Amino acid sequence: MYSNDDMSFRADFEPFVQMAKKFFHREKNYLDTQRQLITCWYTFLLSIGLVANLMELTGPTSEFFKYSNGTLLALTWIWFVGYALQWFRVNTVVRLMTLTTLVVMTTNAIYGAIVPDMQHMHVVILIHMIVLLGNITFSLATYQTMFSLINIGVSILAYVLCALFTNDPMMIQSLAIVVLTLLYTGVLGVHISSNAERLQKENTMMKHDEAELLHILRLNKKQVKSYIRLARAEYTEDQTRLLLAQFDETTQRHIIANVTRFIRAEASVSQRIEKAFPELTPSERRIVQLILRDRKLSDLCSLLNKTESNINTQRANIRRKLGLQPKDNLKDKLEERMRGYVDIQDIMVR
């Protein structure tokens, strides 16, 4: 049991809990939900890094970097708060964040390369290239194909300019591998992003088709599942009653009436086939019935759960018992004998 203090504490924070639930359940499709979650983590982690730099705990501490990183921190939170207040869509805030980070980090990296006597120049450039790589990952993880390519292109340009401005042999020697790594990341990311967007479109179309089909059938998902379960297996009387209970009384009455009518008609056809072919076994008469319905050999094997050799043997027995010649068409001869007992169309339509 909760104490009065606990109850009071929970009551005080309940509005914030409800606000958080509303925020995290805002997006309706899977991709946008993932974008929202990744954006929250990106904002949190980027903010930690920027605040640490502003507090001179890490990274370059000159005034230029403080102003640029402070601007990036402020803009990042403006975009995030704007999204929280529903000023922006999730796609928009992702693009604003990734472009803002790209501009600031590229500027910082080039500034570190061109300023004379920059302390720990290589470390400064490396730090900002790592942030740019993280920014590329962010845009790829949020399925921003075009913006990912822009990020990669600008990041490559930034590294090339830094290598040229510093004229550093190590940076120049590593230029090829950096470019190839970024290009590979881009190709792989664009492929993944394109697949994810295609799957999202297909999923949306499937949901639309499903909703349209359910609307046409006037059924819900639970009722459709009941239909499928009734069709796939045999059940006890109580189990069948539970499945039928998913439908209203009118639907139950229609299902039972239609199935009953079908069973009676099938029984009538079977009785007439038995009269027309008394010399055949029940198994052979079942094959006759399926042949009269234009079922192929593969259908016979599937419906009767028998092999092709078994079916062919029974077909040969039927021909032998009916005294047919090799040139005689089995289906034509079966129809000829059945005409005196039943309308062939009554068999064909079932």
TrEMBL record:
The chain crosses the membrane at residues 36-55, 67-85, 92-114, 120-141, 148-166, 172-192. InterPro entries: Sig_transdc_resp-reg_C-effctor (IPR016032), WH-like_DNA-bd_sf (IPR036388). Keywords: Membrane, Transmembrane, Transmembrane helix. It comes from the Bacteria. This is HTH luxR-type domain-containing protein. It comes from Xylanibacter brevis.
